[in-house]
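help with this record:
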Amino acid sequence: MSTSYVAYHPEQQHLLPPALQDCLPPGHLSYFISDTVDSLNLSAFHARYATGGSRNQPLHPAMMVKVLVYAYATGVFSSRKIARRLHED
């Protein structure tokens, strides 16, 4: 049974909000983090969900790791503050 995640397409162009590349300058920390996490072996995260079972559809592990690494790199450690920053920023 293949794992089914909530759709995750970081390069997707949206009408609102605009594309990430339109909001961030070249060389922004988030590009470095994204490239670094994309090069990591996240198979342990994928294996956790490979067995299937009844559960809500999980978010993609690469996206979650990118969010956590960016939050920690910018000095935000509280999960509530991270959630607030995801909504506001």
User: Anything to note?
Assistant: The chain is about 50% helix and 0% strand.
